[in-house]
Amino acid sequence: MWRDKNRSMIFLNEALGKKQPGQRMLLGIDGLSGAGKTTLVQGLVTELEERGIETAVLHIDDLITDRSTRYGSGQSEWYEHYRLQWDVAGIAENVFLAWKRGDRQLKLGVYDYAKDMVQRQTLKVPQDGLLIVEGVYLQRKEWRDFFDYLLYIDCPRDIRFERITRRGGQDLHDPARIELYKRRYWAAEDHYVLTERPRERADFVCELSE
Q1: What is the pLDDT of residues 102-127, one digit of tens each?
Q2: Could you tell me if 91 and 147 are in contact, meaning their C-beta atoms sit under 8 angstroms apart?
Q3: Model confidence, pTM
Q4: What integer is the mean pLDDT of 142-163?
């Protein structure tokens, strides 16, 4: 399922142990970019299918805004990434509140990378199963109280950056790219960790060092 299968199984069993019969559950997989969230979710879905538990998955990175919204705003680059890259209030209303009130379909604004535009789509979700949401900054104050159970993957920055770089086929030592990450992404991550304390607030923490 994952590099640490035993640990992920402990997490899944603990989370499911809090689910009442007939209850739908919102499960969050939080972690900074490159931490291993998607890999974990893939394994969880396979395991849940084997157990016969109906599950839907939502990737927060599918819900980002168009480039004109998140770039060139005049704000600091880290602020653009943290505050403008997602319609935070819209996601709270159309995803999390809709799930809590029992909607069977969620109205999403899904970003089309090729067209640089947001398109309206719906996601069918189980009536009494699980919705797994994975992504960065899930424990921001506008969202965290919606989750029934939250896992945080804690992984060192150098390992995460190497993964992202390898995945994109880029130069790990490119100074311009490193400076961009310092200004935009790492500064936003530092803000999140400092203000929201995701490791301390999560229900379950997985540490990855490779």
Answers
A1: 999 999 999 999 999 999 999 999 99
A2: no
A3: 0.93
A4: 96
Q: Which amino acid is at 86?
A: W
In the chain, what are the domains?
A: 5-207 (3.40.50.300)
pLDDT band (50, 70, 90) for residue 151:
very high
Give the phi and the psi of residue 49 in degrees, each rounded to 5.
-60, -40
Q: How far apart are CA 54 and CA 127, in angstroms?
A: 9
Q: What is the pLDDT of residues 41-63, one digit of tens each?
A: 999 999 999 999 999 999 999 99
DSSP string, the chain: --TTHHHHHHHHHHHHTTPPTT--EEEEEEE-TTSSHHHHHHHHHHHHHHTT--EEEEEGGGGBPPHHHHSSSSS-HHHIIIIISB-HHHHIIIIIIHHHTT-SEEEEEEEETTTTEEEEEEEE--SSSEEEEEETTTTSTTTGGG-SEEEEEE--HHHHHHHHHHHHT--TT-HHHHHHIIIIIIHHHHHHHHHH-HHHH-SEEEE---
